[in-house]
Amino acid sequence: MSEFQRRKEQILKGLLDEEDSSTSAAAANCSSSSNSSSSSSSSSSRSVQHYPNKDKHTHSNNIQTNTQIKTQNKQQTQQQQQKQHKQQQQQQQDTEEETEEKEKEKEKTEKEKEKEREKEKEEKETEKEKEKEREEEKEEEEESIVSHTDLKVEPLIIHVEAATAAAAAALLHAAKEAGLRDSGICCYGRRFIVNIKGSTRMETPIIMHTTNSSSSSSSSSSSSSSSGSSSSSSSSSSGSGSGSGSGSRGEEGEIETDKETEREKDTAANTETKAAAAAATKEEKKEKEKNKKINKKEEVIVSQQQQQQQQQQQQQQQQQQRQQQR
């Protein structure tokens, strides 16, 4: 219970007590009026004098209570208005803070989007560079294939005639040791012609001498564009004996086996050279990629330094402008 309500209750209780006392007094006056006129006049005058005082007291109390109620109502309204004003101010502050936070978030998102765009551009550039590298690799592989095939084009052919089969075999052995592995022997009766074949890798022509009991034969070099393997054919003359013919045929079988082994060696050597060339091209590509990566890192560092310098210059300019404005 508030003080105001307590006062109200006290005032109401006082009024009820006064009314009870007035009724009791009126009954007493009525009983005493039959005894004497003097006492009735005095009591009536007293009672008449007592009621106006009571009315004045109650009226003043009512006025005080009304004023107190009005003042309390005013205070309450003022307090409510102050609370509403404070709430409005807080709401405005909250809205302003929210707008600022939203703007900051927008700026962050925009910066992140710009970074993502830059990354996408860099990725696209790297992809383009990779495609260029792949094209270059393909071109290099094609060039290397052409170069390897060029080595086998335009073979060097030397025709050497030997007097005997032994001399021809010795000459063929020497040619193979010198690197001319595609050589062979053709027999035309008693004539033994050694077909010495090789590639254009041979820088200087090789001259081989084979001595015989009767005569010596020297090799003469002549180039031709025809390619292919030498074909051996044996024929025995009618005047020659059977023993010489059988010996020449045995030598021809040995020569054919030697040719097969030499061809296998040639294929192995060609594969080795191709593998070595491919490994060399791969190493060159790796070195190129490393150099490109290093160059990219250097470019990034340089760009960062330039950005830092620009930022510093802008900050200095802003500071100077502020000082001038002050």
UniProtKB/TrEMBL annotation:
GO terms for molecular function: methyltransferase activity; sequence-specific DNA binding. Residues 22-47, 64-93, 213-239, 268-280, 304-326 have a biased composition (Low complexity). It comes from the Eukaryota. GO terms for biological process: methylation; regulation of gene expression; tRNA processing. It is an enzyme of class 2 (transferase). Keywords: Methyltransferase, S-adenosyl-L-methionine, Transferase, tRNA processing. Residues 1-11, 101-135, 249-267, 281-300 have a biased composition (Basic and acidic residues). The keyword tRNA processing applies. It catalyses: 4-demethyl-7-[(3S)-3-amino-3-carboxypropyl]wyosine(37) in tRNA(Phe) + S-adenosyl-L-methionine = 7-[(3S)-3-amino-3-carboxypropyl]wyosine(37) in tRNA(Phe) + S-adenosyl-L-homocysteine + H(+). Its EC number is 2.1.1.282. GO terms for cellular component: nucleus. This is tRNA(Phe) 7-[(3-amino-3-carboxypropyl)-4-demethylwyosine(37)-N(4)]-methyltransferase. It comes from Eimeria mitis.
